[in-house]
Amino acid sequence: MIGMPVVDRVEAARFPAFPVHGSAGASLKPEHLVGIHADPAPVGFFEVHAENYMGAGGPPHAALAAIRERWPVSLHGVCMSIGGAQPLDKGHLQRFKSLVDRYEPALVSEHLAWSTHETTYFNDLLPLPYTQATLARVAEHIEEMQEAIGRPILLENPSTYVVFKESTMGETEFLSALVQRTGCGLLLDVNNVFVSATNHGYSALEYLADFPLEHVGEIHLAGHAEQEDDEGALLLIDSHDGPVADAVWKLYEIVIGRRGPVPTLVEWDSDIPDWPVLKAEAAAAQEILDRYAASRERGAANA
Amino acid sequence: MPERVISLAKRGRGRLAYAGAFTPPLLDPEVEEPGLIAGPNGKAAKKRYNVYRNNVTVSLVKALADTFPATRRIVGEDFFRAMARIHVRQTPPTSPLLFEYGRGFADFIENFEHARTLPYLADVARIERAWLDAYHAADTGPLKPDALAAIPPEKLSQATFTAHPAARVVRSRFPAVTIFALNRQDGPVGRLETADPEDGLVTRPELEVIVRRLPPGGAAFLEGLMAGKPLGEAVVAALEDDERFVPAANIAGMLEAGAFTAVAVSEG
């Protein structure tokens, strides 16, 4: 029997390959669509939660396609449950792959967290112990996702409120090991660093000193809320419902000074303000990125 | 390593117990927080664990509130949240796609004793669930209004139709479509002028979801066609359901609404 000729099917890219290097972006919210399209210079890129676009069709896809035609898009997964004990959901992997194929995102990311156990989806980013056993499991999951979508992902450090007694590794050690094992990159959420450091009583600067910054492909900034723990001490909540805190801006500037410009997203998911307010937050990040890009160029020119 | 040994090795990989221990208290306030967690330096973790409890319940209640805004408006914010919280704890989502959540909510409302005085509430929720299905349904063009003109009149009764992925029929013993519409618009809720039963058709031929009231027998007619019945049989079923059923007006109505994407006539 004569075999069928093997033809490499090279499909033309459906959208322009916009760069995101050194630019600041904002969460894409449906309430901002009109403001964004009317804005001659909104932000550098937009990030969406992948799951919101996993329906078959309708207004969400029409809106995202219209955005993607003009700007780069970052695809941010919220519920792959990579940090879960059980196998990944094959159907969800397939849906994620379809979105990557459809929108050709500039960045793809997920969380070091889990949200599904057995058949229940808890709709929160739940924490996991950091041990050799969980490291092996999470590494398997990252490899499975990267294989499914055909490209490396950026893994985000979480905000956490509790620690596991069984943990034997620090979070930065755990993340560094995942990078080594899977070749994934990292999404450094500076607000999460500040929230977790406050909640667990360690130094955010020391955490950042241990963080493998050279593997960071994106940064997140967001607002947090304040509560109290059982002893009445400050407990920060990763609420994404307000402006970025001053302390987080300072940490961000330290990170950019050390790492150089990295695509930076301002997240705002609850109590969503008018578009100009969110845009101004992204512009503040862009200003810092531009300042360090310029000083790097000067440094290179003087060398 | 031979394949069988690999698969055995994979199956034998250590069971990780943290998820099974962490989750039971999330949706059950009676269950104590898990013992495997702590605050820093062995501090207590009750309030800390409650952050997760709160995130899970509040975010899922919000998901229902977003899907059922008319239902929420009818009963008020506090009543809705209390009712939704019970449903969330009894029937949490099984899919990470939150726009799929709430398929059991209308049945839950129907049996919720505190909502007995609002017997139409469950049907309003059914329309809202159908509305969200239509919103996310696949994009495809509806049948052209003149599509039936090409079919010879003697074959028309054998014509079968393919339902548009967005099309949904919701039947009610109450004026559920009118109540839904009154509570989905931005202005003040107007007076309910009818007590008649209403069946609704939800469609999305383009990007906008449209909810219509169906004429007498229209729901039985469309349900027949959607189930694959030939046109003639669907007309008979509709007339059995309601003798006031008017075939021509209903056929024109379903084409205008964009309820179907294709028509076929079997040979012979």
UniProtKB/TrEMBL annotation, chain A:
It comes from the Bacteria. InterPro entries: MbnB/TglH/ChrH, Xyl_isomerase-like_sf. Belongs to the UPF0276 family. NCBIfam families: PRK05409.1. HAMAP family: UPF0276 (MF_00697). This is UPF0276 protein N5A92_21040.
From TrEMBL, chain B:
Keywords: DNA-binding. Residues 21-109 form the Putative DNA-binding domain. InterPro entries: DUF2063, DUF2063_N_sf. One of its GO terms (molecular function) is DNA binding. Gene3D superfamilies: DUF2063. It comes from the Bacteria. This is DNA-binding domain-containing protein. It comes from Chelativorans salis.
